[in-house]
Amino acid sequence: MFSNWCWHEPFQLVIDAGEGLQLALGQKIWAPAVIALTHGHSDHVLGLPGFVASRRFAKGAQEKPLTIVFPEGNSGVLAVRELLARMWPAADFPVTWAPMQASGEFRLGKSRILQAFATSHGSSEPTLGYAVLEERRRLKPEYGGLPEPEIRALVREGGRETLMEAYRHVRFAHTGDAMPIDPALVAGADLLVHDATFLDAGDRKWDIHATTNEALEVGRAAGVGCLVLHHLSIRYDRAAALPALRAQAASSGFAGECWLLDEGRLIDLKQPHG
Ligand SMILES: [Zn+2]
Question: How far is CA 113 from CA 3, 134, 262, in A?
């Protein structure tokens, strides 16, 4: 309700670091390798000092490196960075701060890349969303329709590599707080977490957050496999909001899985009582 963070365990990746992050992770506090901050609003960064300090001073993997990726020049993030330095002036944190601009990339591993994209969150400060891209190889489209014997002949002639091309597949993307993003940024994503603050565009005063219908439309247009709506405003009584949201999901034309992330719980919007 008052704090935002998302722990993607398979990629050892945390998006945003609102208050309570360290408490919620418990013993898993030493697991994350990267924290990617979408912007510097307090409900997205104030968990960072506690998280970093606990990892540095509590019994555990105190030397484990941590990279904090953040929108370059974001003053909220820089204030938290300065707070850490001033609270523990004698401490040397095993932290790398990695400023990022839109389209910037940070390598997560051998075949995975964290790529930033610009978001619109009604602020003059830079704000970013993130996508985890996986480098893959596939048959070049011009060979796609050929019968199997012809493909085999071409492989014998020129080698398998001449028929293949590299591409990047979006495994996971997170918008942070944002107006609807360009679906092209997350085309074919396995999993998209999208801001979905308002059930009705009429409830939106400033262009800062997306509506649930806008998020569903991004999911539909991008052909996302699984869409997670997050940040639903606390103004909505959940008992009334859930049936409305399920009706929106059903009529949206979005064919994938659809969940609401609410108070740390995932609620299936494609099931009547999921
Ligand atoms: Zn915000």
Answer: 26, 6, 28
Contact 45, 76 (CB under 8 A): yes
CA-wise closest residue to 77 among 94, 53, 99? 99
How many Å lie between the centroid of ligand 1 and the Cα of residue 60?
32
Give the phi and the psi of residue 71 in degrees, each rounded to 5: -70, 120
pTM of the model as a whole: 0.94
Residue 274 confidence class, pLDDT cut points 50, 70, 90: low
Instruction: Say if CB 131 and CB 119 are below 8 A apart.
Output: no
CB contact at 8 A, 210 and 195: yes
* Cα angle, residue 238 at apex, residues 236 and 239 outer, rounded to 5°: 125
**Bigger pLDDT: 272 or 122?**
122
Residues of the chain above pLDDT 90, percent: 94
Distance, CA 123 to ligand 1 centroid (Å)? 9
